[in-house]
Model the fold of this input.
Amino acid sequence: MLRGLKVIPGKTPRLGTRKTDNLLGLDSRDDARPLLADSISAMQKLQGRLGAEGERSVLLVIQGMDASGKDGLIRQVFTGVNPQGCSVWSFKAPTSDDYAHDYLRRVSMQLPRRGNIGIFNRSHYEDLVTARVIDVIDDDRLEKRIGHVRNFEKMLNDEGTKVVKVFLHISKDEQLKRLKTRVDKPEKHWKFEPSDLVARKSWDEYERWYEHVMKATSTEWAPWYVIPSDNKWVRDAAVADLLVDTLFEMDPQPPTLEIDPKSIEFEEVLEVN
Done:
């Protein structure tokens, strides 16, 4: 399922040539449903082992255009996973306090504990891509930040945090459809932001800078995956599969007893009525 989705280090992902409605070999939503259920079940067990081991963690970074399905992905894939072993953080526009510090500070403060899975809904990549699109930073500063992020993610990997980054790839037409739904349905009004329409006007610029940044920051230790996301059920099944593959590769091992279990004796205490 994941073949062809990984951004090869140093290669431009060419978002315009990647099908946003790619079904990844699935025929229908009915095909995807049992795959997702199996992945969630496997993730539950692997998450338990990761927590018992208590030495490493996983960080899932989720990026994408507005309305690409970041919230929905988190809800569908992590419902049923032990909340004690997960943390989710949504990064909004930087606050005045954020601007008073380096841009990686607020990210560092939300990194997952050892033994946990952390999910970033948006991330430090907003401080590269969005900051460049709206001219908060220039080309020179962007290249410096790319270097910072590569080193930051290498440090995380070296210290035991496996970083996996996904770009939820939707078409411009699909985005328009979803934005209209947010306006037309009162129960979805809370999702609509006028700024989404402003950002939509810069679609080509966002794609250009995402391609540039992903090419430079997809590494062996923190790869990018471009996930076709016009069909939400394909998106969910693909990311769940990716997480299971990542955890299987990590192969977390719970600690074993240092003494022979058979040598342990329990003293029974009987209550006398």
Remarks:
- The chain is about 45% helix and 10% strand.
- The mean pLDDT is 96.
